[in-house]
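in:
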């Protein structure tokens, strides 16, 4: 695993293998109080730290709010490597790698009365699924969750792998609109390893997402554009969490779709305010 830690390169292995994940750690802006817990950012499918969080102004906004930011490109995305083994792409393995990354970057378990302890997480799209499961399995570490573009189901679970592979091999048209759209989105980014992304889809199919199976108990902010079809599931996801005793807030961003909600100042401001508690 390689990456950047306040300008320094570091390398190590996780669980005996090296997934080659690219990591960035950004300190708070100069003059800001550095005694606040760090924030882990988890990007979406076929995106990257740069596209999801850097180019959209999230990293600088969080730094200006006095927060230390930890981010990694998922396997096969951005500047991360593309492992050959299927296990490196499984959601559970990715969460284990992110946990190691967070600890390497200085995150430590929550302690009462210590605002620098624990970890806040912001996830978008696929990142929101990973963040939900991360929070559910790491209650001693995670303080609050912000989930952008979430869903009660993982859209990648319905992805038609065979049709996508045929299309890449010989151009055979893809009948399923969702599969065709996701593959087209992935093809727009030259840095993406398409076959690695298909391996990620295969691994996700092997670990179905059921938010009711393990519910995070820390406060959660759910955010979606009001033009995002996934916004229809926000009340259902909130109900699952509320039933488990979790405090949930919801924000709908006017005029935004699943693609451009992440660029919204409304989203950034809501997340920064929510995580300041």
């Amino acid at each position: 695993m390689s990456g950047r830690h306040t300008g320094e390169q570091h390398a190590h292995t996780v669980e005996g293998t090296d997934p080659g994940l690219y990591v960035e750690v950004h300190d708070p802006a100069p003059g800001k109080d550095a005694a606040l817990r760090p924030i882990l950012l988890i990007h979406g499918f076929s995106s990257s730290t740069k596209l999801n969080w850097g180019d959209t102004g999230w990293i600088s906004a969080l730094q200006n709010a006095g927060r230390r930011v930890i981010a990694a490109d998922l396997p096969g995305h951005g500047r991360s490597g593309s492992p050959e083994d299927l296990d490196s792409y499984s959601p559970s393995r990715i969460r284990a790698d992110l946990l190691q990354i967070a600890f390497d970057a200085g995150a430590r378990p929550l302690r009462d009365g210590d605002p620098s302890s624990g970890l806040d997480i912001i996830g978008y799209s696929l990142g929101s699924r990973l963040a939900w499961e991360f929070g559910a399995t790491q209650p001693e570490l995670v303080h609050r969750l912000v989930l952008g573009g979430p869903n009660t189901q993982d859209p990648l679970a319905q992805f038609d792998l065979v049709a996508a592979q045929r299309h890449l091999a010989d151009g055979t048209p893809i009948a399923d609109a969702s599969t065709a759209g996701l593959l087209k989105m992935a093809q727009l980014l030259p840095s993406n390893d398409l076959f690695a992304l298909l391996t990620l889809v295969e691994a996700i199919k092997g670990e179905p997402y059921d938010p009711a199976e393990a519910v995070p108990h820390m406060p959660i902010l759910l955010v979606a554009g009001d033009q995002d079809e996934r916004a229809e599931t926000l009340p259902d996801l909130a109900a699952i969490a509320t039933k488990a005793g979790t405090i949930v807030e919801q924000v709908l961003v006017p005029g935004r779709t699943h693609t451009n909600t992440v660029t919204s100042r409304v989203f950034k401001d809501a997340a920064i305010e929510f995580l300041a508690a």
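note: The longest helix spans residues 91-104.
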